[in-house]
Design brief:
By secondary structure, the protein is an alpha/beta fold. The chain contains 7 helices and 14 strands. This is ODP domain-containing protein.
């Protein structure tokens, strides 16, 4: 396996490792600023590869923030390895996730982030956005790098296969095909509205954890994904409960 490095936006770097056994890429992202921030730690097994790749951009020991979307091995499995390699680094995660998991799992106390809280990295600013259960995980959330318009969107738009480092080709179709394989998204009445709220940020780059960085029409893609999940939720309701009967006309 090799980890490839791509600058997907000014000072935002993608570290991508294709795992052929799973036919999927695992991506981590570095926002290289005065206080460098890592989004996703990767699996523990991948730490030697990914940390060596990060060293091509910035010394690992300079890392100030270690972040991730939600508790899952590929998102935070190597968390303590990064903490050991970067003595000044703090884990920053949503307050709920810190309370229920990270306070116990991390080797150093984490920094809990509130919904909408901004970390000023010095030259770059990242905002925590809570997205509970979207696409999955009670503690789920994303980061938005405000100065470059980069949405670090975790497992949203997950696709299978190796793929390019970046693309302007549509990403909703591949995401729905992957959803047919994995069934990883929580379909609830909040799923579509949560994704549409992300479109309101008007991102210019979508940094996918399992797929290429997308630099096409990000707003439309988020609306398309939200619409597709709404349709699937409605279809599931019909399958379980049958068609909704018409409301009788009022008398009088």
């Amino acid at each position: 396996m090799d980890t490839h490095v791509t600058e997907i936006a000014p000072d935002v770097y993608r570290f991508s490792t294709y795992v052929s056994d799973a036919d999927i890429v695992f991506n981590q992202f570095l926002v290289n600023a005065e206080e460098p921030l890592l989004f996703h730690t990767g699996l523990r097994l991948l730490f030697p590869l990914v940390s060596a790749a990060v060293e091509q951009v910035a010394p690992v020991e300079r890392l100030r923030w270690i972040t991730f979307g939600h508790l899952e091995a590929d998102e935070c499995g190597a968390m303590n390895a990064w903490l050991a390699a970067a003595p000044r680094a703090e884990v920053a995660h949503g307050a709920l996730g810190c309370m229920v998991s990270v306070n116990d799992l991390a080797d150093r106390p984490p920094r809990p982030l509130q919904d909408g809280e901004v970390l000023d990295l010095g030259g770059r600013r990242v905002r925590r956005i809570e997205t509970p259960h979207v696409p999955h995980g009670w503690d789920a959330g994303l980061l938005f790098e405000e100065t470059t318009g980069t949405l670090l969107c975790g497992d949203l738009f997950t696709a299978v296969g190796a793929g390019p480092a970046s693309t302007e080709q549509e990403i909703t179709g591949p995401a729905l095909r992957a959803e047919d394989v994995f069934g990883a998204t929580c379909l609830t009445p909040a799923t579509g509205p949560t994704i549409r709220a992300l479109a309101g940020l008007r991102p210019t780059t979508l940094a996918l954890m399992h797929g290429p960085a997308f630099t096409g029409d990000c707003v439309q893609s988020l609306h398309d994904l939200a619409d597709a999940y709404d349709e699937r939720l409605a279809a599931e309701g019909v399958r379980l409960h049958g068609p909704v009967p018409p409301v009788p006309a009022a008398r009088g």
